[in-house]
């Protein structure tokens, strides 16, 4: 059914398509469910040209409405970062890649049709890949080994492109780096995020003590005492292996297309509001620790080798040797040094995965609140979540990561 769009949205879409919106039939689809867009409102729309019937299936991602000036400024930083990514970083990366005909074209990011940077009204228009049989994994389910194998190969490819860009076009890399904000540093300053880190660590410690894992609980005390300081320290990356990262890497920000045998055929990376310059370990550890079950956690070394082989293969396409760019031993050292980022984000996201849909919070309201957020209160009944955070903590302890 044809529907009317708000005039502001209509004008914006017309500018994005360089056409008069009156030339299109507008079909609105259901908006995002709770948990699909934590830091934004998603509007799904199909525009069908009345003359040639050509369709544009679009997602309009827009900033959550809020009245508090501090929250508006914070949300604006998130959107500006993503706008910089789509309008500056991606075009430069793809242009760079064109100078290497033998390199596999990186086509794992949704097409961006346009952006709006007006403070408090930020918008990004993206290709709606659901119409091409891509889907976000079910939030409540663990990520499978097959999905992680495909993901780690993809991160190897994406990171190789970024390492090559940094190595060969260092001046351009430095220029882009200066305009990109590390929004994790803004996140940790919010009472919402800071309190949730501490409360999450306390919950894990309670679970460990119930299971008589006193030594692991003891090791976790530093997270109970100062999780926010640990996070601030680890996210302040100063080593030499920094590249443009995906950033917010849990499975809610990845779309998979599966073949007839239900194996991953292609992947699209979503949501670059938290992209920043850092170690590849930030992407890998966050992705892995936010979705791996007990059996998958045991296969960490396998997945790191899969990643590294992909990184090596794709660096070769730019005439670079992986041993000179990012030696395997350096990667392992950085994992031990920086995987606490993935651990912290992991136990946060495992909590989100286990929430009832109607319990998922309104982030804009929580950001305005000075009260601590205790996600333990919002968990589904049963021990799925507690089993998950126990397995994650034990993995960290057994591997001497905490």
TrEMBL record:
Residue intervals passing through the bilayer: none
Xref: InterPro entries: CHK_kinase-like, EcKL, Kinase-like_dom_sf
Residues in CHK kinase-like domain copies: 124-317
Name of the protein in its database record: CHK kinase-like domain-containing protein
Lineage, top ranks: Eukaryota, Metazoa, Ecdysozoa, Arthropoda, Hexapoda
């Amino acid at each position: 059914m044809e529907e009317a769009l708000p005039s502001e949205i209509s004008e914006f879409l017309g500018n994005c398509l360089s056409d008069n919106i009156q030339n299109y039939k507008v079909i609105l689809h259901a908006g995002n469910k709770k948990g699909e867009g934590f830091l934004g409102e998603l509007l799904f729309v199909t525009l069908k040209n009345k003359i040639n019937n050509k369709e544009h299936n679009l997602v309009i991602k827009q900033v959550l409405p809020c009245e508090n000036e501090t929250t508006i400024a914070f949300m604006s930083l998130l959107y500006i970062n993503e706008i910089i990514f789509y309008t500056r970083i991606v075009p430069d990366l793809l242009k760079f890649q064109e100078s290497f005909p033998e390199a596999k074209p990186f086509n794992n990011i949704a097409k961006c049709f346009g952006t709006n940077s007006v403070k408090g009204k930020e918008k990004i228009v993206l290709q709606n890949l659901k119409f091409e049989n891509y889907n976000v994994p079910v939030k409540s389910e663990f990520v499978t080994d097959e999905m992680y194998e495909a993901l780690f190969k993809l991160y190897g490819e994406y990171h190789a492109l970024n390492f090559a860009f940094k190595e060969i076009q260092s001046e351009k890399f430095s220029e882009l780096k200066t305009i990109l904000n590390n929004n994790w540093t803004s996140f940790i300053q919010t009472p919402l995020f800071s309190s949730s880190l501490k409360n999450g660590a306390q919950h894990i410690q309670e679970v460990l003590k119930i299971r008589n894992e006193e030594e692991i609980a003891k090791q976790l005390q530093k997270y109970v005492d100062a999780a926010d300081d640990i996070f601030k320290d680890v996210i302040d990356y100063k080593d030499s292996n920094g590249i443009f990262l995906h950033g917010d890497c849990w499975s809610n920000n990845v779309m998979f297309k599966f073949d007839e045998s239900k194996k991953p055929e292609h992947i699209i990376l979503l949501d670059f509001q938290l992209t920043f310059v850092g170690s590849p370990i930030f992407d890998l550890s966050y992705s892995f620790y936010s979705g791996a079950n007990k059996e998958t956690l045991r296969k960490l070394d396998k997945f790191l080798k899969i990643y590294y082989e992909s990184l090596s293969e794709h660096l070769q396409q730019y005439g670079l040797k992986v041993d000179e760019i990012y030696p395997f031993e350096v990667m392992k050292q950085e994992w031990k040094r920086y995987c606490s980022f993935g651990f912290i984000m992991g136990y946060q996201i495992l909590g989100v995965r286990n929430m009832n849909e109607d319990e998922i919070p309104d982030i804009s309201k929580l950001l305005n609140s000075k009260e601590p957020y205790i996600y333990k209160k919002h968990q589904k009944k049963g021990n799925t979540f507690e089993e998950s955070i126990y397995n994650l903590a034990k993995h960290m302890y057994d591997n001497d990561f905490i």
